[in-house]
Amino acid sequence: MNCIAVIPARGGSKRFPGKNVALLGGKPLVAWPIESAKRAKEVERVIVSTDSEEIARVAKEYGAEVIIRPAELATDASPVIEAVKHVLTELEKENGYRADYVVLLQPTTPLIEPEQIDAAVALAKEKGADSVVNVSEVDTVNHPYNVREMAADGTVRFWQNELHYTVTGKDRPKFYRAANLWLASYETVMREGKMEGNKTYPIIVAAKYSSDIDYKDDLERIEAFLRLKK
């Protein structure tokens, strides 16, 4: 069973212009998932989906294949799953190539290890999974029982008001947020239009792997973390 990595990296970003080629640790953001995917033993091909000539050039410099994404799939409102489906469709059109599994990696979550990718593929094969997702545990501050919602009258209250007070001092159920990797079977992507199917298995990773870059401040925070780690 073969697996490819798809890295969606469009050119437009209103909140952080040029985000996908911004430098982190001396490398463009898009280079981080490319290098990790190329070092993963279970990944056969690494493909960047983009509408940007600059991103395409950088991706090729770091050894990725590039598939140009049509403009209608590169807007702020374009679902990522449509870019993934476009890649799979183009591969089949070009040479009849069909991937059994696709790993979705994002330049905006650059902290990804090759071993994590291989572990996800191995788990999918072992379980016959529709999909695998890396997750990290939600901390106490951001636990759903502590999250507040704003009412129409401008007041605020806990989203789970009753539970917030009844479980004070007691063990709470654990919740998890998506981290840095999604893996799905061909059928899950193409037939269901999802990266997470009915039979999804998690791999729990450290919270640092959930770091997401939306703004320049986020990039600077991860840069500081990498300097500290070094």
Automatic annotation (TrEMBL):
It holds the Pfam family CTP_transf_3. One of its GO terms (molecular function) is N-acylneuraminate cytidylyltransferase activity. It comes from the Bacteria. InterPro entries: CMP-NeuNAc_synthase (IPR050793), Cytidylyl_trans (IPR003329), Nucleotide-diphossugar_trans (IPR029044). This is Acylneuraminate cytidylyltransferase family protein. It comes from Candidatus Kaiserbacteria bacterium CG10_big_fil_rev_8_21_14_0_10_59_10.
